[in-house]
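Data card: per-record layout.
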Amino acid sequence: MEGPRPRILKFLQQCGSASVDQLAREIGLASATIRRHLDVLQRDHLIAYDQVKKKTGRPEYVYYLTEHGHEVQPRGYDRLLSGVLLELGALSQDETATHSGPELLQTMLRRVALRTVGGSPRGSSEDSFSARLSRVREIAEQEGFSPEIEQVDGSARIWLRNCPFRRVSMTNAAVCTYDKALLSEILGSEPVLETTIRDGGHWCSYLTSDPEHRP
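The structure for this 215-residue chain is written out next.
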């Protein structure tokens, strides 16, 4: 896919939904041109729309990605499967004997996350909160999560605008063990999961705090 359509899909993925006028301003094209591209994307079942009533004037249409549209974003199914198979082969007899299937799956996903973080230069425990957040951004981007981080005083909210394992995570919550373990390892503490795509959110988001912050 070439031209403005990938940019339209990317913007809808990052914003959740947008009107024609919003897309026209973001992409830098006339509204009529944007509508033609939206018609093609809708024909290909990549987007859908809702009608939003306004106080005055005609209703407005807002467009959003369908599940098919989400699936054309960066995906990491092969990478996750390779990591899980690698960790599965490394399980000891004791681990397989004393843990249930769901427990083993979560253990393997945590180990895949640790391996991912360990594959990049690791920061010192003395790293500042901002430095750790920068590393979260770097590795989450590398893994295809399209992260966005808002830092306020001693806390930060981390949005993962894209889930590279979306289709699987919608049917198996254990997959979310991976991104939480990834963030926990980098931050040095476990973040709080606030919203998830499984519960109808546009994205998953986490809240974390700087342990050194003094109000």
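Known properties of this structure: The mean pLDDT is 90. The CA atoms of residues 42 and 108 lie 39 Å apart.

See the next section for split statistics.
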